[in-house]
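BUG-301 | component: ligand-complex export | severity: low

The export step for guanosine-5'-diphosphate jobs runs without errors, but we want the raw record kept on the ticket for reference. Input record follows.
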Amino acid sequence: MLGVFKSLSDGLAKTRKNIADKLGTLILGRKIDETFLEELEEALIASDVGVETTSFVLKDLTERFKRSELSTPDEVRARLKHLLLGILASTTSKFVVTATPSVVLVIGVNGTGKTTTIGKLAHRLQSQGKQVMLAAGDTFRAAASEQLSIWGERAGIPVIKHQEGADPSAVVFDAVTAAKARAADVLIVDTAGRLHTKSNLMDELKKVKRIVSRELPGAPHETLLVLDGNTGQNALVQARMFHEAIGVTGIVLTKLDGTSKGGIVFAINKELGIPVKFVGIGEAIEDLREFEPKEFVDALL
Ligand SMILES: Nc1nc2c(ncn2[C@@H]2O[C@H](COP(=O)(O)OP(=O)(O)O)[C@@H](O)[C@H]2O)c(=O)[nH]1
Ligand SMILES: [Mg+2]
């Protein structure tokens, strides 16, 4: 597969299997009946679409089935697509960095893919012609800022960092100052998912955010929460926690390539109303896709 871009459809293969296999049995001559609808419900739950979304979808399909409005597999698929798209369309919102400089704060639990996502996003913005800078705000261990530096070096992007254990707010202060001085277009701030001290992670992140907006009014322009697609419903718990404490403008859902639980996108939209802005479908630099509801639903079904 060298030189071939992984498509969203490739990335979603495992999740698609759950739902599409179920629809596939219809194409093989299976009748639409109540047992089929129950099995479809199980398939949706297994994909982590969430209880609210599943019951919303099933209620609609069941009513239509009873009114004899659904008989062919194509009709079921089309209706399902329409319903799922409706859920995503209600909270769609694009990633925007128009101010110069713009600050993008990246937060989330350890291991969800923050640093990797920053590498991919930096590459993406740079290839759109933007001057990018990175701030190594995860000072928990030296390896964290080294990892960010490697991504930066690969792309020739400057990384502002301090020593291990340094105050993240001090790193961010320096980084915002440097971004202003060098007239960078976008400063992306990495943060820790845990801390050395007993002090609360949320308090630390609040402080980082406060420094950013003090040094640059209007910033951060985007606060992206990174969630690991494998964590399923727990991702919702994390999202509520970070959103309440910090305020999140968009979600990056990573590792969709390794999970059959990609349906969590719908639960995030329906239950939290926070837009998913990017999805991660692999570890390589180009494996970040801007989230497009229609493309996503098409890839899924
Ligand atoms: N398969 C896959 N792995 C990913 C993706 N995003 C991140 N990872 C991996 O997840 C692990 C943790 O990522 P990292 O960026 O260090 O997480 P952080 O602790 O939040 O900064 C690394 O091994 C990454 O390569 C993705 O979209 N797909
Ligand atoms: Mg990291």
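Assignee comment: Attached the raw record above. The chain has twelve helices and eight strands.
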